[in-house]
Every structure is written in structure tokens, then in C-alpha cells.
Amino acid sequence: MGRMLLGVIADDMTGATDVALMLNRAGMRTVQVIGAPSANATLPEADAVVVALKSRTNPVSEAVAQSLAACEALLAAGARQILFKYCSTFDSTPHGNIGPVADALMRRLGAESVIICPAFPANGRSIYQGYLFVGSVPLHESSMKDHPLTPMRDSNLMRLMAAQTETPVGHIGYATVLAGAGAVKNRLVELAGQGVRYVVTDALTNDDLMVLGAAVDGAVLLTGGSGIAMGLPQNFRKAGLLPDRDIAAHLEAPEGRAGIISGSCSTATRGQIKAALEAGYPALKVDPLALATGEQTARILADWALAQPADRPFLVYSSDDPAEVAAIQGQLGRDKAGEIVEQAFAETARLLAKGGVTRLLVAGGETSGAVVQGLGIQTLEIGPEIDPGVPWTRVVGSPAMAVALKSGNFGAPDFFLKAWSLLR
Ligand code: ADP
Fold first, then answer.
1. For 38-58, what is the HEC assignment?
2. From 3.40.640.10, 3.30.710.10, 3.40.980.10, 3.40.50.10840, which CATH number describes the 6-238 domain?
3. Domain boundaries, the chain
4. In a 10 Å sphere around its CB, with 0-12 CB exposed, 13-18 middle and 19+ buried, how is residue 294 labelled?
5. pLDDT tier at 1 (50, 70, 90 boundaries)?
């Protein structure tokens, strides 16, 4: 039996990083596993393990199978409690996948009572009378109403959940939450006695999340956004299972060269590239058309990077403004353009790791996915946060490397400049 305490199953990669950061900040040593680990995989030692799935919009049966596989691996590694983490805007369709995945986990774990709490007050997500708010408007009036994959046209979490499951869904209102963890716990037991096993819980503030966290002490399963993770470490600490840990301000990174790969064309990234160019980082712009003809190759990109002076980070980027991107997509086709660049960067990252690069920043969600795959990375230990939502991480296993995966519009303009000072 491992000494892991909390297992988290996250339905997308960015969400997995969010919840990992939340746990890390609360003093739990946390690692993130990318994709459902195989049944006989050995999970690394940590207080919390977050499995990052990509199951939010998959067919229901796939999402269920992946989530159950993740659950088995977490249980085998000693998890005492499982958190099913979804988006704080409850991103789902009327078919799922939140309901079916929660049902499957509930059955597997024999859970009597499971809370549903996507509240994340720090990001403006609050729940009152079971209605989910985004800032000052109900969910169905927020921009989520027009989301291309999971348009949210209702804000009532009881109704949203009831559309996805046969199990009755109840509610615990704000007065009970204000009355404290004991009151919430009693009400959960009462509802479970009536066969109501899913319970939406109101929450407006971080204090409420701490109350709810305490109320689910000992529950085998709970569900929610990153926010609900905030109140879980206190239970383990109180039980003497979690030592007081200082959150490391720095990440111990292997000695070696530093560099940046960017395939993100988002506004924030383009600003960050501008700042890096102005700061005099040696930079090579990648042209997707040249990649397509073979005039540029991963080998050429990597050789260029490794030939730069090692005293400052290099930058290899394909990032461009929307007009240029559209022109290139017009010539290569939209999917093909992305694919060519992603593959080139995946291979470049592999060559860079071989060539002694041990500190790597990657910009772009899809680009990060490709690089992670190219490097064969399965597990990342979470380190300090560079900017909200983007931590440095250390690869568990090989290659020995610190990586930071920054998607789209994350990070301040000086992201590429300031990140390095958090490494030792
Ligand atoms: P973000 O997180 O900013 O959306 P992604 O990496 O997820 O970044 O997506 C960017 C996509 O654009 C990737 O598929 C990448 O390969 C592709 N891409 C990068 N540079 C260019 C370019 N100059 N022209 C066309 N497509 C590009």
C-alpha cells in the first residue's frame, strides 16, 4: 500500500494542472499523471496524484472506461479518497460526461453520498440555491451559453445533473453550509437515507469550501472544480497523515541548458515572444511552409538551438499573427498546418533533450501535448507557479528535465523572462 492520500481524476489537462496547483499550495506533494495509467503502472510517491484525462467531450463509454481505469490505478496506489474534477462551469452535455462518470465511480467505490460542488470563488464561480453563477450572471447567461462543444443553457445544477443520471439529486443550501461542517455532514446522511446520493452544495466563499471540505472528511468520492480541493488537505493533516510541508519556492532542476518552444499563436503568447526578442534571447522563427517542403526540419531547429550561447535561453517559435496563420492554413490546410508544426516541435524537443536541454518552457496547449508525447513524459511533479495556472514541473523518470507547459492565453508579458528565476 502506497502512502498516497488523495487521488484526483480530472477530465482535462488544464483542469488537472489547476487542481494540482491547488493541492500543492495547500501543502500536499502532488504529481500529475498524463492519461489513464495502465493497471500495472507504479504511481510515484506523493500525497496526491492527479490523473489528467481528456475525457470531457469523448463518447460517454470512453469517458467512463478511462475514468474507471484511472480510479483503479489510484486505489492500487493507496488513495483513500477520490475527487472527480470537472470544470467550474460544469462543462458537459445533457448526456454527460459528468453524470455517467460519477455514476460509475460511485458504484465502484460504494459511495453513499457524493457532493457536487463546482464552486471556485477566486475565479468568480459561486453556487447559491443550487444555481451556478459565473461572476455576477447565472451560468446560462455567461459566455458558456455559446461554447462550441458544451453549451450551457441552464444554471440549475440539480437539473443539469439530473439530466445525466438516474440517481436522485438533492441540494444543501447556504444556511446549512453557514451552520458548519457538522450540519452539512448530518444533512448528507439524512439525504442518503432517503436515497438522495448526489447533493449539490451551495458555496460562495473560500471559507465555505473549507467547511465543505471538512464535511466530506472520510467520504470515498466527491466531485467538483478545483475549488473543492482546497478544503481536503486539512482533513489529512488533522488525522496526522499529512506532515506540515513548506511549499517550495523553487524547483530543483537538473543542470543543463534552457530554452523555449512556442507553437501558440494566442495574443498573450505573442506578447511574451515580443518581450523575449526585446530582451535579446537568441530566436529562430519556424515557417510551417518550410517545414512542409523539408527546407526546415526538427534536426535543423535543434542544431540551431544547441549552437546558441548557453548563458541565456533560446527561443524556437512558429507563433504568428492571425493573418499569417490564416494564409499558411490556406496553403497547407488547417489541420495539416497544425499537425506539421506540432510534429516538428515534438521531434525538436526530443533532440533538445538528447542534446542537454534540461529546462524547457513550452507555449501552446496542443503544442504542449505534442511535446509531452514526443518526450514520452507520463508523470510530472508539480512545482512553483510561474503565473496563475502555470507551474514549473519536474519529469518523474526520464528525461531528467524541468518543463512548464503554458497554454494559450496564460501568463503575463514577462512570462518567458521571469520563469527561470524559480529554478535552482
Ligand atoms: P494555444 O494554446 O495558444 O491555442 P496551441 O498549441 O494549442 O496553442 O495551438 C496552436 C496551433 O497552431 C497548433 O496546432 C500549432 O501547431 C499551430 N501553429 C503554430 N504556428 C502556426 C503557424 N505559424 N501557422 C499555422 N499554424 C500554426
1. CCCCCCCCCCEEEEECCCCCC
2. 3.40.50.10840
3. 6-238, 257-422
4. exposed
5. very low
CATH topology identical between 6-238 and 257-422: no
Pairing relationship of beta strands 137-138 and 131-134 according to DSSP bridges: antiparallel
| Residue 338 Cβ contacting ligand 1 at under 6 Å | yes
* Any ligand 1 atom below 6 A from CB of 366: yes
Structure pTM? Answer: 0.91
Taking the domain 257-422, which CATH number applies? 3.40.980.20
414 C-alpha to ligand 1 centroid (Å): 20
C-alpha–C-alpha distance, residues 372 and 403, integer Å: 9
CA of 338 to the centre of ligand 1 (A): 6
CA-closest residue to ligand 1 atom 16: 338
Residue 273: φ, ψ to 5°: -65, -40
Decide whether any atom of ligand 1 lies within 6 Å of the 288 Cβ: yes
Share of residues in the chain with pLDDT > 90 (%): 88
